[in-house]
């Protein structure tokens, strides 16, 4: 793992808040580090290294007692600030020697997610989000899954609608192959896109497909797939070559009391299991490269504009400079 694998000084979503229960710690690997998440007695999410300083067992296999995380191996207890407050083998009430404290990580909960600050600088005040993204509620549903592919491939996939008529011809039939980019702009640090897929020859049963979507650092995207139906997603790195994909779907049509939640859940499952896992992943896993962030072998064209903008923003953030975005050249039709 090199420090260059992930974009530094960013809030990353690392877990769905609804799955972080009181009394039960959970272990996850995010951004190359094994982490344990738990809630203290006030319900506040706590994040620490998932490794006991004693003999390196996973603390996420342990439990919570007296507002402390207990190591399952020898019962060492850690409070929410990471201080080791008890080594049972030394006896209750005995002072804990130095070196037993755990490094804690900055986390915050917003929009139904646990966010993790990755970087050396002080955490940014704002969580990166989209005002139009669905919030947790009776009409929304989330899905998640780990994939053996770099988060960058998933981010590219979020920016790419022109694979739909090929990769998804069986599940999302009828999309045209010609792309019209109607809008591609940077709104602050949000990439905002509007594209439509046209058929070469118009006709009955040959509708245009319109997509409005937005992408922002570090790993977020929201896509309106049909009017009033959209999802917000994060392709959070597990490590350099693995991604935790989380997505929350929402729709404006059917209220929760009419079964809107169940319908959204079905649609989300369909999209994750059938569309993404079986169709997109086949392509993403096949993309060949020396290292995940090396896109020098790509030849991009106009429909790839969102991808070029994302890599531009990413480079800017990695270099820590505010140069002009979009130095990546796009091949236009008829050009050399
Ligand atoms: Fe796809």
3D structure, described in words:
The structure is a single chain. With 336 residues, the protein is an alpha+beta fold. It folds into two domains: 10-118, Rieske [2Fe-2S] iron-sulphur domain (Rieske Iron-sulfur Protein), CATH 2.102.10; 140-290, Naphthalene 1,2-dioxygenase Alpha Subunit, Chain A, domain 1 (Alpha-Beta Complex). Helices cover 16% and strands 33% of the residues. The chain has four helices and 18 strands. The strands form four sheets. A seven-stranded antiparallel beta sheet has the order 12-18-17-16-15-14-13. The chain has a four-stranded antiparallel beta sheet with strand order 2-3-4-9, with no helix packed on it. It has a four-stranded antiparallel beta sheet with strand order 5-6-7-8, with no helix packed on it. Strand 17 (229-239) and strand 18 (242-251) form a beta hairpin. The longest helix has 27 residues, at 260-286. Residues 157, 163, 167-168, 280 line the site of fe (ii) ion (FE2). The site of fe (ii) ion (FE2) has 5 residues, from loops.
Number of strands: 18
Report the major sheet.
Answer: 7 strands, antiparallel
The top level CATH class name of the largest domain: Alpha Beta
CATH architectural type of the largest domain: Alpha-Beta Complex
- In the CATH hierarchy, what is the superfamily of the largest domain? Naphthalene 1,2-dioxygenase Alpha Subunit, Chain A, domain 1
Low-confidence stretches: none
Give the bound compounds: fe (ii) ion
Record the strand order, biggest sheet: 12-18-17-16-15-14-13
- Chain-averaged pLDDT: 92
What is the number of independent domains? 2
Q: Can you count the helices?
A: 4
Residues in helix, %: 10-25%
CATH fold name of the largest domain: Naphthalene 1,2-dioxygenase Alpha Subunit, Chain A, domain 1
The 3D shape can be described as elongated
- Counting helices, strands and paired strands, the structural category is alpha+beta
């Amino acid at each position: 793992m090199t420090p260059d694998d992930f974009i530094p000084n960013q809030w990353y979503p690392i877990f769905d808040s609804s799955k972080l229960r009181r009394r039960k710690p959970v272990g996850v690997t995010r951004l190359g580090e094994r982490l344990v998440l738990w809630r203290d007695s006030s319900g506040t999410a706590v994040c620490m290294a998932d490794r006991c300083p004693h003999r390196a067992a996973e603390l996420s296999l342990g439990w919570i007692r007296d507002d402390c995380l207990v190591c399952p191996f020898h019962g060492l207890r850690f409070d929410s600030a990471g201080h080791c407050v008890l080594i049972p083998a030394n006896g209750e009430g005995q002072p804990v020697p130095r070196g037993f404290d755990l490094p804690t990580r900055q986390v915050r909960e917003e929009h139904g997610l646990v966010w993790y600050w990755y970087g050396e600088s002080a955490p940014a005040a704002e969580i990166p989000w989209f005002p139009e993204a669905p919030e947790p509620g009776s009409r929304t549903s989330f899905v998640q899954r780990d994939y053996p592919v770099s988060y960058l491939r998933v981010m590219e996939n979020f920016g790419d609608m022109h694979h739909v008529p090929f990769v998804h011809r069986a599940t999302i039939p009828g999309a045209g192959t010609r792309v019209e980019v109607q809008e591609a702009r940077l709104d602050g640090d949000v990439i905002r896109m509007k594209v439509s897929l046209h058929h070469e020859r118009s006709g009955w049963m040959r509708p245009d497909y319109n997509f409005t979507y937005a992408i922002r650092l570090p790993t977020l995207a929201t896509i309106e797939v049909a009017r009033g139906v959209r999802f917000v997603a994060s392709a959070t790195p597990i490590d350099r070559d693995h991604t935790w994909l989380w997505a929350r779907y929402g729709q404006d049509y059917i209220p929760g009391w009419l079964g809107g939640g169940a319908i959204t859940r079905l649609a989300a499952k369909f999209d994750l299991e059938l569309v993404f896992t079986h169709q997109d992943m086949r392509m993403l896993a096949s993309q060949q490269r020396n290292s995940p962030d090396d896109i020098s072998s790509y030849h991009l064209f106009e429909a790839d504009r969102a991808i070029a903008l994302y890599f531009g923003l990413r480079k800017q953030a990695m270099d820590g400079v505010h140069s002009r975005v979009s130095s990546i050249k796009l091949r236009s039709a008829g050009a050399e």
